[in-house]
Amino acid sequence: MVQTFDSSAEAIEAFVRLERAKRRRGYAVMDEKPP
């Protein structure tokens, strides 16, 4: 999916919403790359 935004603030807001939704569904942040 590709989304376009009129400003970087709108893009950041959409990213934050997506991140919150993913975390609610059980996704977790991985800081390390797999070997």
Task: Provide a descriptive summary of the structure in words.
With 35 residues, the protein is mainly alpha-helical. The protein has 1 helix and no strands. It has one helix at 8-24. The radius of gyration is 13 Å and the shape is elongated. The model has no long low-confidence stretch (mean pLDDT 90).
Provide keyphrases for this structure:
single chain; 35 residues; mainly alpha; 1 helix; DNA binding; DNA-binding
- How many DSSP H or I helices? 1
User: How helix-rich are the residues, as a percent range?
Assistant: 40-55%
- Beta-strand portion reads under 5%
Major sheet: none
Question: What is the compact description of this entry?
Answer:
One of its GO terms (molecular function) is DNA binding. Helices cover 49% and strands 0% of the residues. The chain is built from 1 helix and no strands.
Question: Topology of this protein?
Answer:
Blueprint: H1 8-24
